[in-house]
Design goal:
Elements (H helix, E strand, L loop, with lengths): L4 E4 L3 H12 L4 E4 L4 H5 L6 E2 L1 H9 L4 H6 L1 E3 L2 E5 L2 E5 L1 H4 L5 E3 L2 H14 L3 E3 L3 E6 L7 E6 L2 E6 L2 E4 L6 H4 L7 E16 L9 E3 L6 E5 L5 E8 L9 H10 L3 H6 L5 E15 L2 E2 L2 E3 L5 E2 L7 H22 L3 H4 L1 H23 L6 H15 L3 H12 L4
Parallel strand pairs: 1-2, 1-12, 2-8, 5-14, 12-19
Antiparallel strand pairs: 3-7, 4-7, 5-6, 9-10, 10-11, 13-16, 13-17, 14-15, 15-16, 17-20, 18-19
């Protein structure tokens, strides 16, 4: 097999890159090690920056998002028993975010690739990049007991944190930066009305909590918990009681509870790999960076990588100009580190860190008091939340 761009990973980053390239006349093939049902069964966050929603519309996959997604022009910070709203639209000159599940984004992209005849090979095992430092890289993989080869001009590794792409960069070239947190998010999905029309991020002495949603009838809630906590130790009643305890009284009184339809504990880490390009292979999304979910940046950061990489590839094929590809890593990492900073700062401000003692708790309280009393500070938070310019 032969194509122009070989893409490892059939998640939203790989699918979006393939879709954009197709619309610009650049061929691609996606290799995904899981089945389509598995990919579509993954539950992920769904707060989309305006830059990503604009990209999806430009890529002709925004129609259902615009019909079913929830536009949010603000969110709430809860601390000290009170709520303070951050006016995203007012503080950023009209920018907003969209609540629309990552699973739905992935489904829309799959349908678009199918409609346009895109090539996606599922259950492609043992994918390996070869000769990435030459002008003729290629991928090998196992399919139906046979070893297959995909020749290509460039490789895009959109294959996640545990993928083979980053691992194919020599150790003396790759440098990684990481912080692993001692706690995780215990999350529950329930068919209940959201407690509020907008997200609530809560700082509480018992630990962090987040009230989010997937739709007007599907709610997603999280509480901070030890990362090694036994999920079986958290029956629904215990979860709801703990969530209520971490919310201001008015919000707790409005909370509608019900049976959970999904429950899990997600670890938190900050991670960046440099560089995001080696030879003719380019990293995008979780293959290159992970952020704590506090700032709602994971999928959005993958989208900005795709923005830079797709344009660089189109320019290479259209104008024989390789400057975009040569500068991809530096440009992408500049935005990556800013998003890492924002996600880290939100995590540090909103979660309980027992090792920091009472002094640390007082610093969080002072920071939240200052933030919510300063228009300049709220503006900086709002600008980062809606997404920095590409």
């Amino acid at each position: 097999m032969k194509t122009q761009v070989g893409i490892i990973g059939g998640g939203p980053a790989g699918l979006l890159l393939s879709q954009i390239l197709h619309l610009q006349g650049v061929e691609s093939v996606i290799l995904e090690r899981q089945s389509r049902d598995y990919v579509l069964g993954r539950i992920r966050a769904g707060v989309l920056e305006q830059g990503l929603t604009d990209m999806l519309r430009d890529a002709q996959v925004g129609a259902r998002m615009d019909r079913e997604g929830l536009i949010h022009d603000g969110f709430h910070l809860a601390f000290g028993g009170r709520l303070k709203r951050i006016d995203l639209e007012g503080l950023t000159g009209g920018k907003t975010v969209m609540v629309y599940g990552q699973t739905e984004v992935t489904r829309d992209l799959y349908e678009a690739r199918d409609a346009m005849g895109g090539t996606i090979i599922h259950e492609a095992a043992e994918v390996k990049p070869h000769d990435i430092e030459t002008d003729a890289p290629y991928l090998t993989f196992e399919k139906d007991g046979m070893t297959e080869r995909l020749d290509c001009d460039f490789i895009a590794a959109c294959d996640g944190f545990h993928g083979v792409g980053r691992k194919s960069i020599p150790a003396n070239v790759l440098k990684t930066y990481e912080r692993v947190y001692t706690f995780g998010w215990l999350g529950v999905l329930s068919r209940t009305k959201p407690v509020d029309d907008e997200l609530i991020y809560a700082n509480h002495e018992r630990g962090f909590a987040l009230c989010s949603m997937r739709s007007n009838t599907l709610s997603r809630y999280y509480i901070q918990a030890p990362v090694d906590e036994d999920i079986n130790a958290w029956p629904d009643d215990r979860f709801w009681d703990e969530l209520k305890a971490r919310l201001p009284g008015d919000a707790a009184a409005r909370l509608e509870t019900g049976p959970s339809i999904e429950k899990s504990i997600a670890p938190l880490r900050s991670f960046v790999a440099e560089p995001m390009r080696h030879g003719r292979m380019f990293l995008a999304g979780d293959a290159a960076h992970i952020v704590p979910p506090t700032g709602a940046k994971g999928l959005n950061l993958a989208a900005s990588d795709v923005y830079y990489l797709s344009r660089a590839l189109v320019t290479q094929y259209g104008d024989a100009d390789e400057s975009g590809l040569l500068g991809y890593s530096e440009k992408a990492l500049s935005r990556v580190w800013k998003a890492e900073r924002f996600s880290w700062s939100m995590t540090m401000m909103m979660h309980k860190f027992p090792e920091q003692g009472e002094f640390g708790a007082k610093m969080q309280e002072a920071e939240l008091d200052y933030l919510t009393s300063s228009k300049a500070a709220m503006t900086a938070m709002a600008e980062n939340y809606v997404g920095l310019p590409y």
